[in-house]
Design brief:
The protein is built from 13 helices and 14 strands. With 437 residues, the protein is of the alpha/beta class. The chain has a 7-stranded mixed sheet, sandwiched between helices. The chain is globular, with a radius of gyration of 22 Å. The protein starts with 19 loop residues before the first helix and ends in an 8-residue tail after the last helix.
């Protein structure tokens, strides 16, 4: 019989700091919806109180109770250098001294655009925005506006931000117009969104047969990062390139997660598939809010003010985020060897989960690609028990089986070994309800 899980993470008593985390969370719930500004932060999936982040440093984050955790969330894939890198702070501080927001072009925008264009050879022009969601919205509008076509194809279980027409639900069946996954999105708003199974070439071909010349774009996460980690199918991505070319539809790679994650550049260039538009975000802002979409000049120049595809923003290209991005990309470029190292680290963690799960007769499927990994238990409650023990051991994995885990350049071998040890302990103890080891 399964024993009930009894403990939470360690509660460190430090004078008046006792349980500040819990108190703050209570207060957060008074003023913020569910105490958070983005749903996953509630830790609802794993059924324990969330960590509130007081600060981050390198591979670690610190809560308000004095606990620290090796962080595999990294702001959901943002902090590629780890937290609070000194050089990024220094350059960002210098920028701060010159003012925050001008509504005018600033030298740092040109510099960041240049660095990104040099790193991703097929980019000729970029537009910066403030989030991945905005990047995707801009890219889709550009595709629709360029060719005066309406329909877009996306794939089941992908996530491209929260624009209404991208919250279309997945499901079986070919080319059926889907219901939204969120209330507040009229069916009319998603009637041009076609959701297909990733990898289903036959369905793709049939949809193009039927709607071919009204399809503005196919949007895809080339490596899935929002339904756990989904390994790329290079053949399918090549098929997407061929079929979109044939029908003169655009291919949009949503590299909000994957841009600068596996190499200094895009995932696209590593497989030799050139999308028409690439969406970027997360890493390129060095921890500050950013998004970007980019492609060949003839296409990008269809954006206002040169073209009639409207897109604008008060904050886009602000000097502070541009400097944080520049400092980050410079450090990534100079430290490119670390990409291999963190892929190895990711493989070590994946293997340690695999081994310990097998040793304890637990069914856990692990997905790992480069420095991304995710895991799924056959029973959600097992994942929850596992998760709580890990947290009590100072390891912060994504609080859902559907989110990816990330490794940064700041993670050390000692971090990975500690994580492998904690994973082993957690898998041995998920039925014991113990967190005292
Ligand atoms: C692949 C992908 N596209 C778009 C987005 C949306 O980015 P943002 O949350 O910055 O709006 C995300 C967010 O996680 C993402 O993973």
């Amino acid at each position: 019989m399964r024993l009930m899980w009894l403990g939470g993470r360690k509660k460190v008593k430090k004078g008046n700091l006792i349980m500040q985390n819990a108190q703050l969370y209570k207060e957060a719930q008074k003023y913020l919806v569910a105490g958070v500004n983005s749903p996953v932060r509630t830790f609802n999936y794993v059924g324990c109180e969330p960590i509130l982040a007081k600060k981050g440093e390198g591979s670690r984050i610190y809560d308000y109770d004095g606990n620290n955790y090796i962080d595999y969330v990294l702001g959901y894939g943002v902090s590629m250098l780890g937290h609070a890198h000194r050089e990024v702070i220094a350059k960002t501080k210098t920028a701060l001294n010159s003012g925050f927001s001008f509504g005018l072009t600033n030298k740092s925008e040109i510099e960041l655009a240049k660095v990104i264009s040099e790193a991703i050879p097929f980019i000729e022009k970029i537009r910066f925005v403030n989030s991945g969601t905005e990047a995707v919205m801009g890219a889709v509008r550009l595709a629709r506006g360029s060719f005066k076509r309406n329909k877009i194809i996306k794939f089941k279980n992908s996530y491209h931000g929260h624009a209404d027409y991208l919250l279309a639900q997945a499901g079986s069946g070919l080319a059926r117009l889907k219901k939204s996954t969120s209330s507040g999105v009229p069916d009319d708003f998603i009637k041009h969104t076609i959701v297909l199974d990733y990898n289903d070439k036959e369905a793709l071909t049939r949809v193009f047969d039927i709607y071919g010349y009204d399809i503005a774009a196919v949007i895809v996460e080339p490596v899935g990062g929002n339904y756990g980690v989904i390994e790329p199918d290079i053949g399918f991505l090549q098929d997407l390139r061929l079929i979109t070319k044939k029908y003169k539809a655009l291919l949009i790679f949503d590299e909000v997660i994957t841009g600068f994650r596996f190499l200094f550049g895009s995932f696209a260039q590593s497989i030799g598939v050139e999308p028409d538009i690439i969406c970027l975000g997360k890493i390129i802002g060095g921890g500050l809010p950013i998004g970007a979409f980019a492609g060949k000049a003839f296409l990008m120049d269809k954006l206002a003010p040169l073209g009639d595809v409207y897109q604008a923003s008060t904050f886009a290209g602000g000097p502070i985020v541009m400097q944080a991005g520049l400092a980050t990309l410079e450090l990534l470029k100079n430290g490119q060897d670390a990409y291999k190292r963190i892929s190895r680290f990711s493989a070590i963690i994946a293997e340690s989960i695999r081994k310990s799960a097998a040793a304890n007769s637990l069914e856990v499927s692990i997905s790992q690609y480069g420095s991304l990994f995710s895991l799924r238990f056959s029973e959600r409650e097992d994942f929850c028990a596992f998760y709580k023990i890990l947290l009590s051991k100072g390891i912060f994995f994504a609080p859902s089986e559907f989110e990816a885990n990330f490794i940064s350049f700041a993670h050390s071998k000692a971090d990975i070994d500690a994580t492998a040890g904690a994973v082993k302990y957690a898998l041995e103890n998920i039925y014991q309800g113990s967190n005292n080891g």
